[in-house]
Amino acid sequence: MMRHYKAYCFDLDGTMYRGSEPIQEAVDFVAACQAEGKGTYFITNNAALTRTAQQKKLANFGVNTEVDFIMNSATTLARYCKQHFEGAHVMMIGEEGLREALELENIHITTTNPDVVLMGLDRQVTYNKLADACLAIRNGAHFLGTNSDIKFPTEKGLVPANGSFLKLMEVATDTKPLIVGKPEPHMLEFIRQQGMYEKEDMILIGDNYDTDIMAGIRYGIDTAYVATGVTPMEEVLKKAQQPTYLLNSLADWLK
Prior knowledge:
Structural class: alpha/beta
Strand order of the largest sheet: 5-4-1-13-14-15
Strand content: 15-25%
CATH class of the largest domain: Alpha Beta
Number of helices: 10
Number of strands: 15
Number of domains: 2
CATH architecture of the largest domain: 3-Layer(aba) Sandwich
CATH superfamily of the largest domain: HAD superfamily/HAD-like
Helix content: 25-40%
Radius of gyration: 18 Å
Largest sheet: 6 strands, parallel
């Protein structure tokens, strides 16, 4: 029997859509939750898009939400940086989503002599950018990353994500980055505080066992795995820690 919750936290890539293609069962499920007045939050390790751009992408698929109900790893990283490195000069590798999140927190962005290096997915990354960041970290700059996803699903298939580049940098710098995105629980804690929920009122819904499901398990909330993205069902069934629910798609919940 599927429980009812006050806050439904949906992953995006592989759960709500694959690249430019919506996953209709998920779109329908969100609409049903919203019709019942449930809190619907969208949490993503994607730090490339701004929250406004993610809002527009969802709207194109028929999913309506306020920007405040979108929690991405760029926003999470900027808030973490503000809390722990107040006044720091920051070098970033990333796209508009990370830049906007840092600017909203009034964090000083620099290309030389940083105190902190922040790394999110940058699809225009160059060797020189990576080399400059590598040298800064070797000179003592703190090293933080938005998320450790190795790959993410597109309409063409799985492609490299930020975690692949973080692995490269980790090897090059002999330094392990601090990660704020899933499976770390920072996003879920921000959502809990925002909505003043109890943990038993929250559920995380996602396709990636290692990031989505593990984030929920680590945080201590219920989880629903959907077989529409990264992790195949047969792999999930072998895991020592099982999700609360196993679904082929969110259509199974509505039955």
